Amino acid sequence: MRRSTYRTVACLLVLVFPAGLFAGEMTPAAMLYSHGGTMLNGLAVPRSSALFSGDLVQTGADSVANINSTGSTVLVLNDSLIQYEGDSLKLEHGGITISTSKSMSAHAGDVKISPSKGVLTEFEVRDVDGRVQIAARKGDLSVTDQNGTSTLAQGQEATKDESSSQTSPKNKRRQTGPVPGAVPGSAGAILDSPWAVGIGGAAIIGVTTWVLVQSDDAVSPTK
């Protein structure tokens, strides 16, 4: 009975452990480089840090930041707050410049800006007092808002209004300190990393072995 139990536990660990490991390796990530007083999830970034989907990046009045991911580079302008979402960026306020060959998009309120074609595209987005300013530097853009989708040709600029459902622009732009309720950088994705999976797997093995050993000691010879 004891040998059969050990064999069952071992099979379960073999099946579950690789799945968690592969899931951790598939988490999209980028690198953040700070030039001045940049905050990541409310904590200061000395020079650089790994960036995971859901992380908040905030620059000060005299600082900028760069985000590098596969096929895309982003310049976060001064006095800006953005959320990194893997293949897109959510602009809360301030401005960003995106250069991408992977069709990285940007959101500002209900306005979505994305490359029209899967080629190298460069564009700038600013969110100032509830108005979204868009400039197509290289390549055409698709701009979607509550009125539908339109094309912004290379070299053109456009201005769109945020949806009224968004937070009051004045309240958003007065926020200059760390993001409230923030957690340390990349904390949201640390549980998906291979290290965390490895530690978790070791803990499962240890606990399972302890339980089985305790169970064997408690059983009487007759049982």
Describe the structure using short key phrases.
globular; Jelly Rolls; 2 domains; alpha+beta
Task: Supply the number of structural domains.
Answer: 2
Low-confidence stretches: 6-26, 164-176, 179-197, 215-223
At the fold tier of CATH, the topology name of the largest domain is Jelly Rolls
Order of helices and strands: HEEEEEEEEEEEEEEEEHH
Largest sheet: 16 strands, mixed
Which SSEs are present, and which pair or pack?
Layout: H1 2-25, E1 29-35, E2 38-40, E3 43-44, E4 48-52, E5 56-59, E6 64-69, E7 72-76, E8 81-84, E9 88-100, E10 105-108, E11 111-115, E12 121-128, E13 131-138, E14 141-145, E15 148-152, E16 157-161, H2 169-173, H3 194-218
Helix pairs in contact: 1-3
3D structure, described in words:
This protein is 24% helix and 40% strand. It is an alpha+beta fold and 223 residues long. The protein has a 16-stranded mixed β-sheet that branches. Strand 8 (81-84) and strand 9 form a beta hairpin. The N and C termini lie close together (11 Å).
What is the gist of this entry?
With 223 residues, this protein is an alpha+beta fold.
